[in-house]
Write a structure and sequence with these properties.
By secondary structure, the protein is an alpha/beta fold. The chain has helices spanning 47-52, 54-60, 65-73, 112-122, 126-137, 158-188, 217-230, 241-247, 264-269, 305-313, 336-340, 344-353, 371-374, 393-401, 439-459, 473-485, 499-511, 521-527, 548-554, 573-580, 582-590, and strands at 2-6, 12-16, 80-83, 90-94, 141-144, 210-213, 279-284, 289-291, 300-303, 330-333, 383-387, 409-414, 429-433, 466-470, 490-493, 516-520, 536-539, 563-568, 595-598.
Length: 599
């Protein structure tokens, strides 16, 4: 192992230590990028190839203040498109110059030791990874919101996961090798003045360069296990020791439990550890992968939004310490749809704190910090990769309002067939459109329409069995308060409802003791109840998850006179197209009529 200490000129000179790979760097335990714990294979890329690769091109360019101002104005337009391989009726659209079609030799941009290892390990599966890898390797911001997750029927997202893990590994190794190469030059010329040589500007404020944000421990386990499998380092068998203790050893999340009455995707999604609080670092050394490394000695941070938000806030009265987020260059948010069922505000709060100036000095040689860090332009170099099974306005807002990559953006556009054929009953589904002029007015417009147009009809009915579905917690509380004010006969099931109250509400509704059951989407997400006694389904706001719609309608199976009413506005296009199909959704939005029927 090679350690470094500063000489009088502010450069680093080498201190030869033991070559044992598992000895920690005591002198610079919390060091920045200058810790020399990886090696540059002499057979790796030549300097010429190094300067022409995507990594070097991306980090070496210096953007101007005029370009920064243009990025902040968000005037970029999606000008080009190309097919999305293996994803039906989908295409990629992007800003800036049009990307080249993926080709078999796209790994020419990858470090040789990684390329050789992946060609051997992935073999015939390598080509299926190249399409998304080429997008990642362009260093543009990416929003892929039609990813079919592993827990859905026919869902195979391993190629997408492998692609962003390969890209992250390549970025980490290239970052470290540049630093180590420069360290070697300085060891040979300890008195060299690097202040006027731009080739030595190779570091950020802190060492961590990649951040994985995931909703559940089971997802983190899946990704870390695969990351280690894709790493060519020789000593990695012991990397999972403490990790298995805290995250589990079983692969049961890929198998459906026996005798389950829940949908298969529910069983697979929640089969593993569903804890949503985890935060740890991963460090790559010369020979090994080390988990639970000190944050400032790590190359990759793996976290849930909740745990990272608490770290930022100083959980438990501890000193706030999140400078390790100052030099993140790649952020991967996977399973964003599941995060949206937790607390999306936590994710937004994390993004707000990325790439800020650190509050302390963390051992980095200031003379070697890249100029765009010192200019506070790091956020314009950060690549964000957002992955979800569907798109929401909140995801759009994050992608458009907190991602300013100078390379540009790429996002997926899909024509959806809809899920109406999955309804097993002959039910008239009446869609009622109300007017909402803007997003800020949409909630009030929906509520006013319900209070003035819909509820009076409900109030006059003697029969019960009305299942009232709402998609957000805000709507759940608002409608609950309204029903209380009207002294309505209702019960409710939300994400915070106790199991005892849930059982009581289901029984009261089934026996007709309560006419209305208020039911939230998050509650359905976490429990997937079949609500018996449903005679009339009123969807106050469409579910985000398209598979929930036929499940709700099919709950009318015991009704002799089933009814289904859906409220929507022109601002609900994203939800509509997933449920009724893209072409039908456009007709519902553009038509002069306000009432539509599906049978």
């Amino acid at each position: 192992m090679v350690l470094h200490e500063k000489n009088s000129n502010g450069n680093f000179q080498a201190i030869e230590q033991s070559d044992e790979d598992d000895i920690e760097d005591e002198y610079k335990h919390s060091s920045g990028d200058a810790t020399g714990d990886m090696t540059n294979n002499g057979n790796d890329c030549s300097d010429e190839t190094e300067t022409s690769c995507s990594f070097h091109r991306h980090v070496s360019r210096i953007i101007t203040n005029e370009e920064v101002n243009a990025l902040m104005k968000q005037n970029c337009k999606f000008k080009w498109e190309m097919p999305a391989a293996d994803i039906p009726k989908s295409k990629w659209v992007g800003t800036g110059e049009k990307m080249q079609e993926p080709h078999d030799d796209h790994l020419h941009d990858v470090k040789e030791k990684l390329r050789d290892y992946w060609q051997h390990t992935l073999s015939d599966h390598l080509s299926s990874r190249m399409s998304f890898f080429s997008l990642c390797n362009s260093y543009r911001d990416i929003m892929h919101c039609n990813k079919k997750p592993f827990y859905m029927k026919g869902g195979v997202d391993s190629s997408t996961m492998d692609a962003y893990l390969m890209h992250s590994l390549n970025h980490v190794h290239r970052t470290r090798d540049v630093v180590i190469r420069n360290d070697a030059k300085l060891r040979n010329d300890a008195d060299k003045d690097i202040s006027e040589d731009g080739s030595y500007l190779d570091q950020g404020f802190t060492r961590p360069k990649v951040l994985f944000l995931l909703p559940l421990k089971s997802f983190a386990r899946r990704i870390v296990k695969r990351l280690i499998q894709l790493s060519p380092l020789s000593q990695k068998d012991n990397a999972m020791g403490q990790f298995k203790t805290q995250f589990g050893e079983s692969d049961d999340e890929t198998e459906k439990p026996e005798h389950s009455t829940k949908p298969a995707d529910f069983d697979l999604l929640f089969a593993g550890d569903i804890d949503d609080h985890f935060l740890f670092g991963i460090k790559f050394t010369k020979k090994s992968v080390k988990l639970y490394s000190n944050f400032y000695s790590s190359d990759i941070i793996v976290a849930s939004p909740l745990a990272l938000k608490r770290k930022i806030d100083g959980e438990g009265g501890k000193e706030k310490d999140f400078d390790f987020l100052s030099s993140i260059e790649i952020v991967v948010v996977d399973h964003a749809d599941v995060i949206s069922m937790q607390n999306w505000a936590h994710l937004e709060a994390v993004f707000e704190e990325l790439n800020r100036l650190p509050s302390k000095e963390h051992g980095t040689n200031v003379m070697r910090i890249r100029p765009w860090y010192l200019d506070q332009h790091a956020q314009y170099y950060r690549q964000t990769i957002l992955l979800s099974s569907y798109l929401t306005p909140e995801m759009n807002a994050l992608f458009n309002g907190l991602c300013f990559n100078y390379e540009g953006k790429v996002k997926m556009v899909t024509d959806y067939p809809g899920v109406l054929p999955k309804i097993q009953l002959e039910v008239r589904q009446v869609y009622e459109r109300f007017d909402a002029s803007s997003i800020s007015e949409a909630h009030d417009a929906r509520f006013d329409y319900f209070c003035n147009k819909v509820y009076p009809k409900i109030q006059d009915l003697d029969e019960g069995g009305l299942l009232l579905f709402v998609s957000s917690y805000f709507e759940y509380i608002r409608i609950s308060n309204f029903l209380k004010s009207k002294e309505a006969s209702f019960c409710r099931i939300g994400e915070a409802t106790s199991q005892q109250d849930i059982s009581r509400s289901r029984l009261w509704f089934f026996e007709g003791k309560k006419k209305i059951l208020l039911y939230s989407e998050r509650s359905h997400f976490y429990h997937r109840y079949k609500i018996r006694g449903t005679q009339h389904l009123l969807i106050y706001s469409l579910p985000e998850r398209k598979e929930f719609y036929p499940e709700l309608v099919n709950m009318l199976g015991e009704s002799k006179n089933p009814k289904c009413n859906v409220l929507f506005s022109r601002l609900d296009l994203l939800k509509l197209e997933r449920i009724v199909g893209t072409s039908a959704a456009r007709r519902l939005i553009s038509s002069d009529k306000s009432m539509f029927v599906f049978c």
